[in-house]
Design goal:
The radius of gyration is 20 Å and the shape is globular. It has an 8-stranded parallel β-barrel, surrounded by 7 helices. The protein has one domain: TIM Barrel (Alpha-Beta Barrel). Helix 4 packs across helix 5. The chain has 11 helices and 12 strands. Helices cover 39% and strands 18% of the residues. By secondary structure, it is an alpha/beta fold. The termini are far apart. Bound molecules: ligand PBG.
Length: 322
Amino acid sequence: MNIRPRRNRKMSAIRDMISETHLSVNHLIYPMFLVDGKGIKSEVASLPGNYRWSLDLLLPEIEACVNLGITKFDLFPAVAEELKDKTATYSYAEDNFYLHAIRAIKERFPEIALMSDVAMDPYSSDGHDGYVENGKILNDETLPILAKMAVAQAQAGIDIIGPSDMMDGRVGVIREALDDEGFTDVSIMSYTAKYASAFYNPFRDALDSAPKSGDKKTYQMDPANVKEALREAYLDEAEGADMLMVKPALCYLDVIALLKANSTLPITAYNVSGECAMVYAAAQKGWLDYERVMSEMLLSIRRAGADGILTYFAKDFAKLAR
Ligand code: PBG
């Protein structure tokens, strides 16, 4: 044997030099759940270590995360059932606590990149991302609602809009609405290839946002498909997206790699609630080493081609990386 690959692995001094993939807290976006009220920190049962925060307690928590080096946050609202309706009017209402929180967070931490979600589900009495009539999710009727929501978030000071609804044409409509209102600097990170996945359940528990009937298969993608992801990517690029997201991440590493190879835009991946919940559960049982498994997962997502990763592991990883 004149060729022995193990020679390049024999000591960490060498391994560290030839390591191809780098992961740091700079790559991470921390998703957090917000609830109206005061003094609330209520744990999401299916996502231990993650909480629905009221703004007063969220602000110091964000500060703690900023001190750990986290600079990007994605905020999701848990909306009271009585505020939900068919057209998600609360999503752009004057007194919306989510919009108020965006304002307060950006005032206190102007340097962080704050991302929002644009989709009807947290505000919809039907629990769908789009407008529902006779059991159908109507695409074009949903678009102006999404545009209003995005403009309201921009007015509150959001840095990055995250359309997660998978309606056709929404990136273009949102871009135009933002530009018309003068928000040409507000970015769009499109949920480009968002699959109809079983891995979102803990998130839907957190927001109490599960569909009241049916499923999301007429708008979210079929897990069997990959060419379609490319089609969505081309459309989002043409409509003016700044970054393309793949979601979930771990079962879709091939999709991340495909978009990375076929787009000049930054690619992000959402390491979703169910993916993190599996690790929390196995670690609680002592079956897996939490820190090593979490780090390996995040590294794999980076290796597949993701520039940024949305992950509930962000704070724990930041602590570990210190
Ligand atoms: C809402 C939305 C969902 C997630 C992000 N935005 C849930 C869904 O589409 O049902 C899932 C995130 C996660 O599971 O961590 N449109």
